[in-house]
Amino acid sequence: MYRYDEFDHAFVADRVAQFRDQVERRLSGQLAEDAFKPLRLMNGVYLQLHAYMLRVAIPYGTLNSRQMRMLAHIARKYDRGYGHFTTRQNIQYNWPKLEDCPDILADLASVEMHAIQTSGNCIRNVTADHFAGAAADEAVDPRPYAEILRQWSSVHPEFSFLPRKFKIAVTGAERDRAAIQVHDIGLHMRKNDKGEIGFDVYVGGGQGRTPMVAKKIRDFLPEEDLLSYTTAILRVYNLYGRRDNKYKARIKILVHETGVEKLSAEIEHEFNELKNGELKLPEADVQAIQNYFKLPDLPARAEGWANLAAWKKADADFARWVDQNVQPHKNPDYGMVTISLKPIGGIPGDATDAQMDLVADLAEEYAFDEIRISHEQNIIFPHVALADLEPLYRALSGAGLATANSNLITDIIACPGLDYCALANARSIPVAQEISTRFGSPERQAEIGELKIKISGCINACGHHHVGHIGLLGVEKKGAELYQITLGGSADENTSIGEIIGRGFEPEKVTDAIEVVVNTYLGLRLSKEETFIDAYRRVGPQPFKTALYGASAEAA
């Protein structure tokens, strides 16, 4: 995984000392909130509805046991005993005291972590496929290139004050598990017939109040040109992106208003000025960083196949968990394990300090000390021997971490919503809990199959509702909370923005509405193998509108 050098250690320590002084001046009254706000945001400190919130960067969702234990320690010592993993592969603490934030940042620095660029109009945490380096369908491990982008973008003097926040995602697999087409820049890595590495480059995706799918502007950008081309995109955006209206400041608006052909020409012009300069990636440096991410030495564990078959036959709950939460690994003796942070009736993405400590212990024992956070708010062990799945499952079960629901209807993405966020119009957490409870039986989930529900408490779409197979957007109308339903969204290689299906539903009616949608799908699918998203794309919205709103489907 990534590692700090002497410069990194010194730089992060200096930032902690600087912020400590700023906090002391704020608490003493020497620094007003208006002056302090941009300084705290540079260090990941938000002022939410009830308290401060600290967002910690987990680069491309990768961490080790030592770091996970530190996250647990922070939750225990400085917060209320839990943390919330986010769709940006970060962790948020919802209740830190401002005076404790410098100490938290110092603790993070001791394990090579920080909160820099988790807020503000800069390049945010670069995200990647949570199965990177392990997935059977992977052509190129994207993590070394996410790390190159992280090093290049950290406190970049030219791109620290962009028109708006900027998000980059990278994947190197056939299946897009990083949602690259709803990012400002999405990079799909692949190899050509000669074995050379290149990037398909997408620009202008995003969610929020104006959701858009990114446009491909480059096929197979050579590996050596990654930073030159990314710099060209950022320079064009920095020059032309709007600063007069924050709602129109994202690069997706620039792409839409300028046109992809014209904007691509501007980017290519800038790239031609840069491509043979100092930003060209040296092969030796790329190789050095790739060496950080080598596959662990995975000993042959062929006994796992027979053991696994016997364990599954003896325990239906274990069999269900393996079938749902364990995916094929490059090495056939191993699997990739999703540890669900979506217990039935629980809060999506939350983990207690005790759970984080247990995950750290289990990662050392069974997973070669590698842990990932997915943008779907779950924890991943990318390398687990099939022969170790049964004891791992037992340990997870005892801590409420063995819910067998990966990619099922209760594997819900949800933002913190109005329970925490000052921007929210409606609550997300209680709605997620009620839906999870309603559909939580294993039999019901198995009957429904793959179905992704995503919930946002406001138009900023932190819960990714636009790309949910079923999306819920909390809105405020005449002082009351309502939930709009969108259908047909997707964030994979066939990305689509969901359609608003009609008028919103009151909190007490929204779960019933979801049940109507689900039952309609079950009644019209051609077979059990036809997933919700495939059935929706085949029949369109009308059957669902009719089921929800009556034969007239008057759903203004």
Report on the structure:
This protein is an alpha+beta fold. It has helices at about 5-30, 35-40, 65-80, 100-110, 145-155, 225-240, 250-260, 260-275, 285-290, 305-315, 315-325, 355-365, 390-395, 430-440, 440-450, 505-525, 530-540, 540-550; strands at about 45, 50-55, 60-65, 80-85, 90-95, 125-130, 170, 185-190, 195-205, 215-220, 325-330, 335-340, 350, 370-375, 380-385, 415, 455, 470-475, 480-485, 500. It has a five-stranded antiparallel sheet. It is globular, with a radius of gyration of 23 Å.
Supply database-style keywords.
alpha+beta; 18 helices; five-stranded antiparallel beta sheet; 38% helix
Topology:
Blueprint: H1 6-28, H2 33-41, E1 45-47, E2 52-56, E3 62-63, H3 65-78, E4 82-85, E5 91-93, H4 101-109, E6 127-128, H5 143-153, E7 168-171, E8 185-191, E9 197-203, E10 215-222, H6 226-240, H7 251-258, H8 260-274, H9 283-292, H10 303-314, H11 316-325, E11 326-328, E12 334-339, E13 350-352, H12 353-366, E14 371-373, E15 379-385, H13 389-397, E16 413-414, H14 429-438, H15 442-448, E17 453-456, E18 470-477, E19 480-487, E20 499-500, H16 507-524, H17 532-539, H18 542-549
Parallel strand pairs: 6-7, 7-8, 16-17, 17-18
Antiparallel strand pairs: 1-2, 2-5, 3-14, 4-5, 4-13, 8-9, 9-10, 11-12, 12-15, 14-15, 18-19, 19-20
